[in-house]
Amino acid sequence: TTLKGALARAGHLQAALESRNVHPEVLKYCRAELLEENYFHAVLEATKGVAQRIRDMSGLGSDGADLVNTAFSGKSPILTFSSLETETDKSEQRGFSNLLIGLFGAIRNPVAHAPKISWPMSELDALDIMTFISFVHRKLDGAVKI
């Protein structure tokens, strides 16, 4: 309710995220929601940021599983993390695609389609999800467009 209270709250959240060394791309999309302690929408915005980054990197316009499948899967992916010459390389590529599809299906879609009161989001859950999203962004840092 006061500027001092908002700064204290923001400092607490900032410290929690900094202690997890969260990727800057996570915060890029949800600073305002975190300041308001609106974890439900912070998670939604951070997850939408992953999709936007994949679109920016790949040049695709789709979303969700379609975006991931076109960008990372199949015989001719647009984005890769390696040469895809070994079975290990191919397995990592498939696994990362599955993680992304899971992120959109298990986190983004319920938050995007369920009312906030039906899908409670604690600070701890939000921080865990954002830490996972941070991992995704760190992997995307190493992706190359073919």
Put the structure in a nutshell.
This protein has 146 residues and is mostly helical.
Main structural class: mainly alpha
| Arithmetic mean of pLDDT | 89
Low-confidence stretches: none
Along the chain, the helix and strand elements come as HHHHHEHHE
Q: Give the % helix.
A: 55-70%
Radius of gyration: 16 Å
Provide the β-strand percentage band: under 5%
Task: Strand order, main sheet: write it out.
Answer: 1-2
Q: What assembly state would you assign to the polypeptide chains in this entry?
A: single chain
Tally the beta strands: 2
Report the principal-axis shape.
Answer: elongated
Structure description:
The chain has 146 residues and is mainly alpha-helical. The protein has seven helices and two strands, in the order H-H-H-H-H-E-H-H-E. Strands 1-2 form a two-stranded antiparallel ribbon. The N and C termini lie far apart (50 Å).
Provide the fold topology.
Layout: H1 3-19, H2 24-28, H3 31-35, H4 39-58, H5 64-72, E1 79-80, H6 87-113, H7 123-141, E2 144-145
Antiparallel strand pairs: 1-2
Keywords, separated by commas or semicolons:
146 residues, mainly alpha, 7 helices, 2 strands, elongated
